[in-house]
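Good morning,

Attaching, inline, the backbone tokens for the sequence recovery test we're adding to the shared suite. The designed sequence is right after.
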């Protein structure tokens, strides 16, 4: 199962986690609180953790294409919500 992780340095990690989850909850199953979340996309799942310094995002999918799509959706939406900061989102493959 393909997996990846990204760590985004920001003092607004909880805010972005909650914005992403509220937005995704209109279309998919989401469970979250201010410090952790799970988003179940049809093409893959993402888990998020927020602390005072960073937002950590882990995604997995059944296929490499599903993982790419999950990463793209997270990248696209986080870039919109965090447009003032322009966060660097670098995905690293995990085994």
């Amino acid at each position: 199962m393909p997996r990846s992780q990204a760590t985004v340095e920001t003092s607004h990690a909880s805010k972005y986690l909650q914005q992403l989850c509220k937005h995704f909850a209109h279309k998919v199953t989401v469970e979250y609180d201010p410090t952790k979340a799970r988003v179940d996309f049809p093409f893959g799942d993402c888990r998020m953790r927020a602390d005072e310094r960073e937002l950590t995002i882990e995604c997995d999918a059944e296929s490499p294409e599903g993982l790419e799509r999950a990463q793209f959706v997270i990248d696209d939406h986080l870039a919109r919500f965090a447009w003032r900061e322009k966060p660097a989102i670098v995905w690293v493959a995990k085994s």
